[in-house]
Design brief:
With about 375 residues, the protein is α+β, with helices and mostly antiparallel strands. The chain is built from eight helices and 19 strands. The protein folds into two domains: about 230 residues, 2-Layer Sandwich (Gyrase A, domain 2), CATH 3.30.1360.120; about 120 residues, Elongation Factor Tu (Ef-tu), domain 3. Helix content is about 20%, strand content about 35%.
């Protein structure tokens, strides 16, 4: 079981640790609800050093990234970030990821922890043009500081105005005593904030300085359980739940990152174009329970007559809405917004309504 560079801090802070994607990671500290609410209303810190970072460089870098991903890298300017996915050769998804563009010959791909080695091998397998590919995951650490008070807490640690970094943009600057940090504004919580990619040997110093800077503001650590409930309130996909090798990006509602533009000849494009033309058999939807209950992954979704029409992929009790919310796949004819469905929870079928995420909208 791997440990991140922040493992000892998690123990000191009283985290409940558990295996996740090959790492021993903090699942919760004070409790999921308290951590969730602190991120929504104030500021929380996540250790996300388990994520994978892969560099692609050289004259063939653009060509390789364009071939591997469904989004159009040709539209990505230096200093910007693109959400995208690796399509596989059978219509599914190898992984979803972020692409950071430095220049035509330099890209950083940030991938899911559970898929890092699989993704790295996938990239190498398709690197027929000789781009330089480096898996830098072992040398890097990543901290996500999320919440409306993030900028106020962090600004004193950086000479660059953090407010000048637009959504889905990044800069590379000294930060909190570190010689160099990639500072990005993407988030996975919907609460605002920043991510910091650091050299492993400088990461502990930065962690300590962030916590010192946030002491008076109520900054607190947050675990992966709260990260999951936060992303679910936003309706963000999680690999292994909403997306997998068997689900297409179109079925998962990711047509907005599947660009059939001229010159964007990504892997298995013709099959996805055909799927788009013929229509989808199932769709990923959000739903909200209108009765008291908590939906969980793999619970059946039913129609009024008691026929199974889908399955839950993720579900929770929303800390902000105080009601059960979830995502799941439905047969396409039942996936219309406003459609009434039922969630089979043990021996009951609870009423729910199909809604368009995000479930929670900040005021």
């Amino acid at each position: 079981m791997k440990r991140t560079v922040f493992y000892d801090y998690h123990r000191q802070l009283g985290a409940r640790m558990a295996p996740y994607a090959g790492f021993e990671m903090p699942i919760e500290y004070e409790g999921v609800k308290a951590e969730h609410l602190n991120v929504r209303k104030n500021v929380g810190v996540f250790d996300v050093s388990h994520m994978g970072e892969i560099w692609i460089r050289g004259p063939k870098a653009f060509e390789l990234v364009q071939r591997l991903t469904t989004n159009d890298v040709g539209r990505l300017l230096p200093g910007k970030i693109q959400y995208t996915c690796f399509p596989n050769e059978k219509g599914g998804i190898v992984d979803d990821l972020l692409v950071y563009r430095y220049e035509d010959e330099k890209y950083l791909l940030v991938v899911n922890a559970s898929n890092t080695e699989k993704d790295y091998q996938w990239i190498l397998e398709h690197n027929t043009g000789g781009a330089i590919v480096e898996n830098a995951s072992e040398e890097m650490a990543q901290i996500a500081v999320q919440g409306p008070a993030s900028r106020k807490v962090l600004q004193g640690l950086c000479s660059t105005d953090l407010g000048s970094i637009p959504y889905y943009n990044f800069i590379t600057v000294p930060f909190a005593g570190a010689s160099e940090a990639i500072v990005s504004n993407t988030g996975y919580t919907g609460a605002g904030g920043f991510e910091f990619y650091l050299h492993r040997e400088e990461a502990a110093m930065v962690w300590e300085k962030i916590f010192e800077a946030g002491k008076q503001a109520g900054l607190a650590p947050a675990g992966l359980a709260a990260r999951d409930t936060l992303r679910l309130e936003m309706g963000f996909c999680l690999y292994g739940n909403e997306i997998s090798e068997e689900t297409s990006p179109l079925e998962a509602g990711l047509s907005w990152i599947t660009k059939f533009s001229e010159g964007n000849d990504f892997i298995n494009r013709p099959a996805l174009e055909k799927q788009k033309e013929q229509g989808l058999k199932k769709r990923l939807v959000g739903f909200i329970l209108t009765e008291r209950g908590i939906p969980r992954q793999h619970y059946p979704l039913m129609d009024a007559a008691g026929n199974q029409i889908g399955e839950v992929t993720s579900g929770t009790m929303s800390p902000m809405l105080n009601t059960g919310i979830g995502m799941g796949y439905l047969l396409a004819e039942h996936a219309r917004e406003g459609n009434r469905i039922k969630v089979a929870i043990r021996n009951k079928q609870l009423d729910a309504e199909v809604v368009k995420p995000p479930f929670y909208k900040a005021s």
